[in-house]
Amino acid sequence: MRVHLESVHRSYRVRRAPETGGRLARLLRRVSGEVEALRGVDLRVDEGEAVGYIGLNGAGKSTTMKLVAGILTPTSGRVTVDGRDPHKERRRLSAELGYLAAQRASLWWDLPVKDSYELLRRVYDIEPALFRRRHDRLVDRLGIGRHLGTPVRELSLGNRTRAELVGTLLHAPRLLLLDEPTIGLDIFAREAICDVLRDLRQDTAPTLLMASHDLRDVEAICDRIVTIDGGRLVYDGKIDELRALGGGRRTLVIHHAPGHRLPPLPGPARSGERTSTVTTYVFAQGELPGGLLTELFADPQVDDVQIEAPSLETVIKGLYLEGA
Amino acid sequence: MTGTLRRGWRAQRAVAGMQLKLAFHYRTRAFAQGIGALLLIGLQVALWSAVYAGGDGQVRAGGLTLHQTTVYAAAGTVWVLCLPGLALARQLESKIRDGRIVSELLLPTGFLTQWFSAALGRTAGVTVLVGVPAAIAGAAVLYPFTLDPAHVGRLALTAAIAFVVLFDFSYLIGLSAFFVRRVEGLNEVREALLLLLGGSMMPVSLYPAALRDAAVWTPFVHGFYTPLGTLVRDPFVDDRVVVLGACWAVLLSAAAALCTRAALRRLVIAGG
C-alpha cells in the first residue's frame, strides 16, 4: 500500500489554568492554547517499502502513525493510503492495516491470549485453516505457545508485546504501522521481534512504517530513515546516506601503555580526548596517512588501534542540534 | 455488497460474543449485584405492601394492584442490572481519556455499532447470569400466570426499544467526554431523569395525571416504564406509548451516529 502525506499540519487545543487575574477569575476563566504536533509534513512511502521513523519524544511520530491509520484527521493538508482518505475509509483500511503500539494493549486485558486471537479471526473473517497456519507459525516464531492460555494482564512486557505482534499480523496486513515495538524489551524479545519482521518483509513485503528510538532495530529492518523533529521532517533518505551526513569523519582510537607518549602523527588532529591509556584523533575519511597504521602496530607500547565511523545516533543528534 | 454485510454481521457477532464471555468472566460481580438486587427487591416489596396496607388485594393505585406494582418494582431492579447503564458511559469515557479507544478504531467495524454489539453481548451475559434466574424465581412465586403470544411479542418489542434507548443515553453521555472534562455530572443527571421521569423507581401511572401525560412524551419512560408496564399489563401503556418509544429509539440512534461522526474528528491522543 502506498502512503502519502502532503503538507500535513495537525494541531490541537489544550486548556490551561490562567496565570493572571484574581482567584475567582482564574476559577471561571478558561485559557486555551494550540499545540502544533505536525507542521507541514510531506512524506511518501511506496508499496513494500520499510521506513524507520525517528524522532524525540513529542516530535510527532505517533501522530503521523494515527493519521495514516485514519484514527486522527489532519488540521490541514492531505493524507492518503492507496489514494484514499484513511479517516473516511477507516473500516475498509482497517482490514488491511496492522497497528502495533507497544505502549497500549490492544488484546483483551482480562481474557486469555487465545480468546483475543479467536475474536480477531472472526472480526477479520479469516478462513479457519489459514488462520491456524498463520497462528501456529507466528506463535512458534515468537515463542509464546506457553502463554496462550494466560490472561494478557498477567504477561510480562516482553511476552505481551510478542503476543500483540501475533495479533497484529494474524490478518496479514498490507500496511504495518509499528509504534516503538521494542520499547523496554530485553535483547531476546527484541531479536525475536526483529527476526519476524525481517522475514515478513521477505515473504509478503508489506509497506512498513516503524517509529522507534532504537536505531539498531531500524537498521535491522528498514532501508530508509525519516527523521522528525518538532513536527517537521529533518531528514528523509537511505540509512547509508544518513551515515554519510556525518561528514565522512573517522576517529582513530589508540590503546597504549599507561603514560606512553605517541610520536607526533602527521595529518590527524588530536581530538582532545585522552586518558593515560587511550588517545583519539579525528580525521576525514580517506585522509589517514599511508603507513601510519603499520607504524602504530609496530610500536610495542601500542596495544590496539581502532578506526570508528560516527554512530547513527551521533549523526541524528547532530541533525537535531542543527535544527535547534 | 452481500459479502461485506455478511462480514460486518460476523464481526459484530464476534464482538458481542466476546462481551458475553467477559460477562461470564466477571460472574462474581454479577452474582454480587444479583444478591444486592434481591435485598433491594425485598425492601421494595415491604415498602409497597405498606403503601397498599389495609386493602383487600384488589385496591388499585394508578390502575395497578399491589401484585402488579411489586412485580414492576422487582423486574425493574433486575432490569437496571441487565441493561446498558452507567458502566457503559464510564467505560467509554475512560477509553477516550486514556487513548484505549485506538484499539477499537483499528478494528474493521463501525465504532457505534461495535459499542452497540458489545452492550448487547454484555446484556445477554448478565441476563443469563442474573436476569434468567430472577425471572424463573419470580415466575415460581407468581405461578399460575397467563402468558399469551401477543403479550410476549409486545414485551419483546418494548424491551428492544428500551435497550436501544438506554444504550443511546449511556453512549451519548460517554461520548461527551470529547466535549467536556468529566461526564460524571451528566451521568447523575441521566440517573435523576430516569428515576423521576423514566419510572425506574415506581410506575409512571402512579404520578399525577398531568405529569404522567407529559412524561410519556419524553424518551426516559421508554427505558423502564414502557417495557415494565407492558410486563405487568399497565393499562396506561398503550400502542401510542409504544410507537412514541420506537420514535425515540430511532431519533436517539440517529443522534448517536451524528455525534460519533463529530466526536471522532475531535479525537486527540497524546503520548504514543
TrEMBL record, chain B:
Keyword Transmembrane helix set for record: yes
Pfam families, per database record: ABC2_membrane_6 (PF06182)
Keywords assigned: Membrane, Transmembrane, Transmembrane helix
Bilayer-crossing regions: 30-51, 71-89, 124-143, 155-180, 192-210, 241-264
Claim: NAD is one of the keywords in the record: no
PANTHER family: INTEGRAL MEMBRANE PROTEIN, SLR1174 PROTEIN-RELATED
Full protein name: ABC-2 family transporter protein
Organism, as annotated: [Kitasatospora] papulosa
